[in-house]
Design brief:
The protein is mainly beta and 384 residues long. Helices cover 15% and strands 43% of the residues. The protein contains four helices and 28 strands. The strands form five sheets. Strands 10, 13, 14, 15, 16, 17, 18, 19, 20 and 21 form a ten-stranded antiparallel β-sheet that branches. A hairpin with a 4-residue loop joins strand 16 (234-241) and strand 17 (246-256).
Length: 384
């Protein structure tokens, strides 16, 4: 009996170790649920014996705050994360209230960690960056509603030694539904700031043209605060969005079905398109405005504008080169994937560039520790 106990003792120790590790993992998850540590802090736990390596990786992410290319949404890029370096992808993008920025990353390896951070650039006496949010640990997507106009910085950083093709999509979504049923961007024919009354005032909204009687719908969940037939707006409805502190103004209606105090869901009908008030001589349309507390009227266009999805260019990862070389003539490195983007630097024939990815027919490259874009026709892959 004694020998039998000795025989099984190693298995008991293995079981105890497994139970201890499992318990520790559960304790960490329970603690994380309460404290909500930053995703990179969770990742850092894997480097207890190699903190210097982690610090080098983290430093590259911090340096990316001062090194960005400029993109607009929708934007798409494909490429390959290379284990030979600490690649960081940093993009500047202009965003407005009413927009939600959405990022999705796809990789061939489902285990590869990718970290996404969003910052807002502040310009006082010096440029600084305010952290606005991070993707969840092990998540490949990120979205954030914008409440202040400005230049934002997206930083995408794969884990140490990541080695996999990737596809990145960046697009914007409006936070409100379009306020006229079955209509879209093309129905907007008068925009924010347009001159009115011979220039004595400016347009504090957008005009959406549609046939008389087309349903006008709640752009968001809210409560109807008032309705009536008065002033320049004629038959009108006011809807309160308590989530964002916005008051939505629907004017020139032909008729109203909403009543004060009514709670509505996005898409519920409030009334019908008309041309009442000072629009009597104009074609039927909805004047749609947004008012925000002491700020007064704000531009409603970003709140309802429908944005296109990004199209990711195809790159065969089997022929993807880590480097490209300038072919025959001098060329310009630009801040974005277009000839209208600012010129950052001019390079010489035979200069070698590290390839980060491809967007349409432009390469996203790194040269002399700075990121930029160059047209694909000007370079050739190295080693292919």
């Amino acid at each position: 009996m004694k020998n039998k106990n000795i025989t099984f003792r190693p298995y008991i120790w293995i079981l105890l170790i497994i139970l201890a590790v499992t318990s520790c993992s559960r304790i960490n998850k329970a603690a994380d649920f309460i404290t909500k540590p930053a995703p990179k802090d969770v990742y850092k736990r894997q480097f207890k014996e190699a903190l210097q390596l982690y610090s080098l990786w983290e430093d590259q992410g911090q340096k990316a705050l001062t090194d960005s290319v400029r993109i607009s949404a929708p934007y798409a890029e494909s490429g390959k994360f290379s284990p030979q370096s600490f690649p960081v992808y940093s993009y500047d993008i202009a965003l407005n209230p009413g927009e939600e920025i959405v990022l999705d990353i796809m990789t061939d390896s489902i285990k590869t960690l990718v970290f996404i951070d969003l910052y807002r650039q502040n310009k006082d006496s010096v440029v600084s960056f305010e952290h606005m949010g991070s993707s969840e640990f092990e998540s490949r997507s990120f979205r954030k509603e914008i409440d202040q106009s400005g230049i934002y910085k997206i930083i995408m950083q794969p884990e140490i030694e990541a080695n996999t093709p990737f596809r990145l999509k960046v697009h914007k979504e409006s936070v409100y539904r379009f306020p006229v049923a079955s209509k879209g961007n093309s129905a907007i024919q008068s925009f924010w700031g347009a001159a009115r009354d011979g220039g004595r005032r400016s347009h504090e909204g957008i005009d959406i043209f549609a046939a008389r009687g087309t349903p006008v719908v709640a752009a968001t969940k809210g409560r109807v605060t008032s309705t009536g037939n008065k002033g320049l707006g004629g038959k009108q409805v006011w809807l309160r969005d308590s989530k964002r502190g916005n008051s939505l103004y629907y004017a020139h209606l032909d008729s109203i079905i909403a009543t004060p105090g009514m709670a509505v869901a996005a898409g519920d009908t409030l009334g019908f398109v008309g041309n009442t008030g000072n629009a009597r001589t104009a074609a039927p349309h909805l004047h749609f405005g947004i008012y925000k507390g002491f700020r007064g009227a704000i531009n409603p266009l970003p709140f309802v504008y429908r944005n296109d999805a990004a199209v990711v260019p195809d790159i065969d990862p089997n022929i993807f080169s880590d480097q490209v070389v300038l072919s025959k003539v001098r060329a310009n490195l630009r801040s974005g994937p277009t000839t209208k983007s600012n010129i950052l630097k001019q390079i010489q024939p035979k200069d070698t560039l590290r390839l980060l990815g491809k967007s349409s027919d432009w390469y996203h490259i790194r040269f002399n520790e700075k990121n930029s874009f160059i047209h694909e026709s000007l370079v050739s892959p190295v080693g292919i």
